[in-house]
Amino acid sequence: MAGGSAVGSAADGRRQDYPGRLTLFVFMACLVAATGGLIFGYDIGISGGVTSMDPFLSKFFPSVYRKQQQADDSNQYCKFDSQLLTMFTSSLYLAALVASLFAASVTRVAGRKWSMFIGGVTFLAGCALSGAAQNVAMLILGRVLLGVGVGFANQSVPVYLSEMAPARMRGMLNNGFQLMITLGILGANLINYGTDKISGGWGWRVSLALAAVPAAIITIGSLFLPDTPKLPPGARQARGRQTLRRVRGTDDVDAEYHDLAAASEASSAVERSWRDILKRRYMPQLVMAVAIPLLQPLTGINVIMFYAPVLFKTLGFGGSASLMSAVITGVVNLAATVVSVFTVDRLGRCAVTDLGF
């Protein structure tokens, strides 16, 4: 991606730094864009919480609720053994997987900000359906729309942050997306803990509907976000220097501008990108690009993040205690992310990754 590995690297492989600074304008733009991570994180944390609430289970998954109420010594985990309940949680991630395939093309052709706008609109629609759901069909359809929004946001936001960030702060600002994810998870856990105490049994609706807040921020904010300094081929290339001056806060942008132009021309000249990436010289990068995001979820951390309240409940915790335990997990997750945000550019990506694993 432009602004990533090609731009900002010298010929000898060292990072090329450029004049400029992190302006307030760029910081606010990145903050708005990073709310796409807040959406994703909120949705990770919210589903496990509402599925541990008795009013939610009794309305949509009565068989699971009845199993919970039975006073027997059977495995607590088996009481949540429901294909329909699993579909409620997994439908979002399946939809996000499919949507990301289309979002990649939209992000490349229409631009990062419009991809974020599409994600925000579909997420708002999903929040409305989920919060007002009267049956399982509405609930799952809402989750599918949420998944589409997540797919578009996850494709466009990291690219936007990388292209907007000064080279020496690229790791920190790109990690802002992950920071927002952890904030979303913690926020969802806190909201679940609070809404579980609402009398009347409708607190789960508040939990699901409040995802509209970050969705509205990125939807409205994307209309005002500036284009990134990436230089697409064609007539728009003439605006690149002006955009670069604005986001870097300096007129001395010639070196970075020429590198961006060279990267744009090199990217346009690639005709068989999928075939080229399979060549032997690119194999180490390809293996790591696939292995890291594949193996990280297999450590089991995603299960803990998605189902923390349910897992604690199956261990014998009460309803409120399981939700509070999820909050504690979210706080630790956030603290670790904050450390990585402020050390990734100093220690390097490999060191921080090794520490995480």
Write a structural description.
The protein is mainly α. The chain is 73% helix and 0% strand. Helix 5 packs antiparallel against helix 9 and helix 15 (319-347) packs antiparallel against helix 16. The protein is elongated.
Give the structure's gist in a few sentences.
The chain has 357 residues and is an all-alpha fold. It has helices spanning 24-50, 54-60, 62-69, 83-110, 112-131, 136-164, 170-195, 203-209, 212-224, 240-248, 254-269, 273-277, 283-298, 301-314, 319-347, 349-356.
Itemize the secondary structure elements and their pairings:
Blueprint: H1 24-50, H2 54-60, H3 62-69, H4 83-110, H5 112-131, H6 136-164, H7 170-195, H8 203-209, H9 212-224, H10 240-248, H11 254-269, H12 273-277, H13 283-298, H14 301-314, H15 319-347, H16 349-356
Number of helices: 16
Beta-strand content estimate = under 5%
Give the N-to-C terminal Cα separation.
26 Å
Structural class: mainly alpha
The overall strand count is: 0
What does the radius of gyration come to? Answer: 22 Å
- Unreliable spans: 1-13
Q: The biggest beta sheet, please?
A: none
What gross morphology would you assign? elongated
Helix content: over 70%
Question: What descriptive keywords fit this protein?
Answer:
single chain; 357 residues; mainly alpha; 16 helices; disordered N terminus
